[in-house]
């Protein structure tokens, strides 16, 4: 359990996503995420669209009282939407320092700290966004949860 891959630098291709972006207090995150993923899944199902990879969360800042967070699913192509909360947009290509974590979500800060240390040691600067991709579902035991954590750099 813990960090299960080497930290590395990657060029991530641009990606269409169906997502919801909101500002919340960190303690609200679990309930808002559950509601948001349900809403996004429903809209995608109505449009006949499948995700192209596992769900993600992007933390656009680190203010736990006013957390700017985006939750969604990568999709293969643009999805015309007329929905009040679910949007479709392109995340531009980006350079990301990332690694894989196995274990409970609430214990993954150890990897995030290591990623920030790697960034500093290699002369890069964080851009501000942190992406978590959830590679399996919460029905598994917490010790088996896999999360890819990536910090966008300049």
TrEMBL record:
InterPro entries: AraC_E-bd, GyrI-like, Reg_factor_effector_dom_sf. Residues 5-154 form the AraC effector-binding domain. Transmembrane segments: none annotated. It holds the Pfam family GyrI-like. SUPFAM superfamilies: Probable bacterial effector-binding domain. This is AraC effector-binding domain-containing protein.
